[in-house]
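Progress report, Aim 2. The chain analyzed during this reporting quarter is listed below.
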Amino acid sequence: MLRKIGIFLLGIIGFVSIVLNVYFFKTKSPSPLSSDKNLQNLKVTRVIDGDTFDAENGERYRLYEIDAPEYPKGCLGEDAKTRLENLILNKTISIKSFHRDNFGRILILVYSNNLFINEILVEEGYAVFSKDKTLTETSLTIEKAQEKARLTQRGVWSDLCLTKKDNCLIKGNYRSANNARIYHMPDCYNYDKITIKPGTSDRWFCTEQEAKMAGFRKSLDCPKL
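Predicted structure tokens for the chain:
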């Protein structure tokens, strides 16, 4: 008798579990694409690099809160551009616009086929999270995607992009705010404070000549010869 009761109770528990799973699956939170009424549709006509593209309306757009490697010189810069092309080129996408950057590009969040493109590029290691002063509702999502990429060493977080060559100690630092490329020698005042960020246009150089040929200038805080 007790055995029959036990089997009956297990059956009840199993049934309730199935019902609850179905309920929560059907009532889960909608994606940003389906819930945001401020989205605009546009067709992508040209991809410039891993985070910038042109649209049919003549505007140039940049994916918000992410930074892809410089094209074509940055580590995985060409791969990042190719990945973005595969995701959005010649397709009609949905975007949420913010403000323009210093170069006149409209900063946006991009959705295509129910995929959040900003997040995908970061999670796959083709871009890094670029924190802005004004955080969006998706900032945490992109930041978590970066943590996944970093922990699994994908893309710009792999040894391919992070390994420094022996005896190449010159730090090339790119400042996107004013499009400045500055290199720092080991004897420069701020050398220890400069970090080479993966997925950006920062680079290690072996010689000053190599840095200058890449468009970098020497930091003003370095000792005068």
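Residues 164-218 form one domain. The chain is about 30% helix and 25% strand. These observations will guide the mutagenesis work planned for the next reporting period.
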